[in-house]
C-alpha cells in the first residue's frame, strides 16, 4: 500500500502541474484571467485580488512538489494526509479545466469541495503534530498556505460566478463585499485558534486580502471602502496570528505551524 500511496500522490501532483500549464496558457489554454469571459480577471469584481496576488501559486506549487518528494521518505503516513492531499491536487486541476470550459458556476462547488478537503487536511496536521522541522515546513507550511489562499480565492470565485449570473449585490455590492471580508477575518481568527497558532494559513490569507485592497485602490472597480475593509481584515488576522504565536512560544506545549 505504501508504494501505491506514493505513486498516487506523485501522479496527482503531475496532473495538477498539467492543469496549471493549461491554466497559464502554456499548452493551449487561456490564462485564467482571460478564460470564462474574464470573470476571474483582477478588475472583474470587488473581491478580485490584483494580478500580482497569484504569484503565491509559485510558492504553493514548490511546496506541493517538495511534499511529493518528501512523502517518498515517509514510511507510514501516520498523519493520514495522503488521501486529502491527492484529492486537493486533483480538485485543483479540475477547477482549472472547468474554468477553461467557461463553466464558472460549476467551479464554485469544485473550489468549495477543495476548501473542505484542505480544511480536513489542516485538521489532521493539527491533531497530529509534525515530527520534525522539515515536516513542519514541507507539510504544515505548504498545506497551510494552500488553505489560506483558497479561503480567500473561494470568495473571489463566488463573486465572479454571481456577476456572471447578473447578480448586482442588491444594488450595494460594496456593502456585500465588506460583509464577506468580515467573514474572512473571522475565519482567519478561527484558523489561528483551531490550528494551534499556525503561521502559513493566516499569512496566505493576509496576502490575498492585501492584494484585494491594492486592486480596489488602484484598479476597477475602484472602491476605497472595500480597500479599507480588506486592509482591516488583514490586520485583524495578522494580530491574531502574531498574538497566538507569541503565546505559543511561552506555552510548554506550543507548536508553531
Automatic annotation (TrEMBL):
Keyword Isomerase belongs to the record: no
Domain of life: Bacteria
Segments crossing the lipid bilayer: 47-68, 80-97, 103-122, 143-162, 168-192, 199-218, 224-246
Entry keywords, A to Z: Membrane, Transmembrane, Transmembrane helix
PANTHER family from the UniProt entry: SI:CH211-161H7.5-RELATED, XK-RELATED PROTEIN
Descriptive protein name: Tryptophan-rich sensory protein
Amino acid at each position: 500500500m505504501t508504494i501505491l500511496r506514493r505513486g498516487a500522490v506523485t501522479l496527482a501532483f503531475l496532473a495538477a502541474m498539467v492543469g496549471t500549464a493549461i491554466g497559464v496558457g502554456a499548452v493551449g489554454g487561456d490564462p485564467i484571467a482571460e478564460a470564462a469571459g474574464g470573470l476571474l480577471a483582477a478588475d472583474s469584481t470587488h473581491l478580485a485580488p490584483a494580478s500580482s496576488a497569484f504569484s503565491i501559486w509559485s510558492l504553493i506549487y514548490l511546496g506541493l512538489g517538495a511534499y511529493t518528494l518528501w512523502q517518498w521518505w515517509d514510511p507510514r503516513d501516520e498523519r493520514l494526509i495522503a488521501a486529502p492531499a491527492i484529492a486537493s491536487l486533483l480538485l485543483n486541476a479540475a477547477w482549472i479545466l472547468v474554468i477553461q470550459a467557461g463553466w464558472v458556476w460549476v467551479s464554485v462547488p469544485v473550489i468549495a469541495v477543495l476548501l473542505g478537503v484542505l480544511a480536513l487536511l489542516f485538521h489532521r496536521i493539527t491533531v497530529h503534530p509534525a515530527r520534525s522541522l522539515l515536516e513542519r515546513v514541507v507539510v504544515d507550511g505548504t498545506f497551510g498556505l494552500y488553505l489560506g489562499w483558497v479561503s480567500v480565492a473561494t470568495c473571489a470565485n463566488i463573486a465572479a460566478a454571481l456577476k456572471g449570473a447578473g447578480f448586482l449585490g442588491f444594488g450595494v455590492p460594496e456593502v456585500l463585499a465588506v460583509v464577506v471580508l468580515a467573514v474572512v477575518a473571522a475565519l482567519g481568527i478561527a484558523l489561528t485558534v483551531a490550528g494551534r497558532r499556525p503561521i502559513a494559513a493566516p499569512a496566505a490569507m493576509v496576502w490575498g486580502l492585501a492584494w484585494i485592497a491594492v486592486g480596489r485602490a488602484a484598479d476597477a472597480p475602484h472602491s476605497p471602502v472595500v480597500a479599507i475593509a480588506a486592509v482591516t481584515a488583514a490586520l485583524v488576522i495578522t494580530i491574531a496570528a502574531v498574538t497566538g504565536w507569541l503565546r505559543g512560544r511561552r506555552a510548554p506545549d506550543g507548536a508553531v505551524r
